[in-house]
Amino acid sequence: MFGGKLSFLIPYEWEELESEADNVYVYSRPRTDSGWLRVSLNTSTVVAVTPSEKLKGIFEKRENASRDEQTGNLVHAYERDSEEEGVKIHLYYWIVANAVEPNLVREAVFSYTVLSERINDEETVATVGLLRQIVGQANFNSETQRPDWRG
């Protein structure tokens, strides 16, 4: 994804969908009417501070931030309700970031959108649980690294 700068897992049966934005990838189960995962990536070049200090600044005001033990990624999760074209939706967000040596910080924003009436459905609950596990394991690469696994 993003020219090899980010790789992450998605459920096997999901497919990539067309996106209106060039810098956003969208995934879902085939022919679903609820449940779309959107991913965007921001990269900052760090000059005045270290990448670790920049990461600390990104997450210091966010409650419930955690660190993924396997990757060292910092993760902040939150939810919100919204409305799109008159339809009530619920959004789950995960902001995942890490330093990429020598002077970059990459920040991926994952959002999962479901119809509000489906937030308690067994399938939605299971999918959100799975996404909570896998988004923190995103792999951030430098421009010269090749991703280790398919996103």
Radius of gyration: 16 Å
Q: Superfamily at the CATH H level?
A: Mog1/PsbP, alpha/beta/alpha sandwich
What is the CATH level 1 assignment?
Alpha Beta
> What are the segments in which pLDDT stays under 50 over at least 5 consecutive residues?
145-151
Overall tally of structural domains: 1
CATH architecture: 3-Layer(aba) Sandwich
Structural class: alpha+beta
- Major sheet description: 7 strands, antiparallel
Instruction: Indicate the proportion of strand residues.
Output: 35-45%
Counted beta strands:
9
Tell me the span between the first and last alpha carbons.
Answer: 7 Å
Number of helices: 2
Shape: globular
The percentage helix is 10-25%
| SSE ordering | EEEEHEEEEHE
Named CATH topology:
Protein Transport Mog1p, Chain A
Structure description:
By secondary structure, this protein is α+β, with helices and mostly antiparallel strands. It has a single domain, classed as Protein Transport Mog1p, Chain A (3-Layer(aba) Sandwich). Helix content is 15%, strand content 40%. The chain contains two helices and nine strands, in the order E-E-E-E-H-E-E-E-E-H-E. The strands form two sheets. Strands 2-3-4-8-7-6-5 form a seven-stranded antiparallel β-sheet. Strands 1-9 form a two-stranded antiparallel ribbon. Mean pLDDT is 88; it is low at 145-151.
Brief account:
By secondary structure, this protein is α+β, with helices and mostly antiparallel strands. Helices cover 15% and strands 40% of the residues.
